[in-house]
Amino acid sequence: MSALEYSPYAADCPSRQLLDRIGDRWSVLTIGVLADGPARYSAVAARVQGVSQKMLTQTLRALERDGMVTRTVFPEIPPHVEYELTDLGRSLRTVLVPLEDWATSHMPDVAEAREGYDAR
User: Fold this and answer.
1) Which end of the chain offers a freer environment for a tag, N or C, measured as fewer CB atoms within 10 Å?
2) How far apart are CA 50 and CA 59, in angstroms?
């Protein structure tokens, strides 16, 4: 299939699964942490507050499967594992930075809208 043949609006299109992956909050935050360079699991977990061990493991595995993250095991005792963005993952980061910027700069507007809605 060429890129023009994918449509996330079609229920069975794999691009919809990809949008689900990159739109997931844990994926967005994990990619943001890894944008600073390779990191061990514990370093990612410390920066992504609120993520459970299970969810972080699932997120890293899914991002690795989709080609956005590499996992490198260093032959040491105890084993040393690092995660790093691939070129594909770094290209996604260029899209996510403006989204993060939008969220932080528009949060006061959203908070005001929520307050107005909740007051009704």
Assistant:
1) C
2) 14
